[in-house]
Amino acid sequence: MRTKIFLSIIIGLAIKFSYSQSCSTIETDINFMSGTLVDKRRPDINCHQYVRTALLNKNVNLADGTFKNTRDISDNSSWISTDTDNFVKVCRKEFAEAICFSGISGQPDHSALVLSKGIITGGKGHFASTPGSGSYIYSYGEASMYSGGGTEFYYFAVLPKISGNSSLSPGNTSSYSIQNKDYIKNINWSVSSSSLQIDGASNGTSVNIKASCNSGSGTFYLKANITIKDSYQIVTIKKPITISCTVIPSCFDNTIDGENLNTFNYVSANTNHQIIMGLTRSWNKSSGSTNYWYTRNSGKEMNFSISNGCATFQAYNGSCGTQTFIFCATSGYHLKSKITDKKLNSVTEDITPFAIYDFNGKKIREGILEKYDGKSPLQMLPDGFYILKIYDTSQKVYVRN
To answer: 289, CA 20 to 30 Å: which among 1, 135, 342, 395?
Structure first.
């Protein structure tokens, strides 16, 4: 027989796979017997919910099919044959934990639990199920309660889950494992990101995973790629692992009013300016005059205001040493040439804030003139009249684009 291997496709936490063989059995001579009543308690569930209650919720006695209690009941009433998150099709009766068979239309029609005594041959063995919602639980000596022949049925088993920590700290190694079921031929492990590294062997029922910050913080996936005996289908089971990486600030992770803090900085006069440092600092003003200055949060924040001239500060950190920062107040504006009727020429003050308003007083642009070196800040605006305001002065210039 030619065997084809289908790779898995994963969406979210769903487990998708294709079957390389039908793994089905056609019985044309089953004498469909009536079932034996084993449990008169009848919660409003169908046969698929009953099988899930038994195998996933562990709430049914596998010896006789009776409920352990009627509270822990699965609310998933869909066919187990399409539930690829929890079940896998197997080819041998000794691997089967459930049996699912189709009706005359060929569509999935009914599910039954394989009891602990197992399957004798084909569809004959020890099963339990319910004929439908609200019905009692019956046990059967054969695979269906329906009359008639030509039923096609399939064997299913529960997929194992990966056990282990759901979160790891960078640099730590943890062990993960998966239950080795009889239908598993082999297991190969893989990861979805370089932030998870396989430490040692990548096959077998267990694997060691080391966490790193190669891809930063996030949730990544450890994958167990399982090959099923006989059919050679490959099923991929995923476990999410969250890694939290602490970003360590450097000596240069510093800002002034949300912009990069430089050694030399032009600032607006008579305005509060906020310095945010990545590391704690001890501040000292070595020269110049300020309206005020103060620090907070162990020197990670420094606020100041100056009216004119420049002020020089030293900021000390044990790892960074002493860094010097100079702040000079800007006042007025200077243009290299007069404003024409078409554009604003470049400015002599390298760092001069500006804002442009329309005649309704709506601000439509702001920035630093230094970034428009040799270009007009009015560029790309529609033709019309605008108000250009150079910061730190009360003067306004009316310009036409």
So the answer is: 395
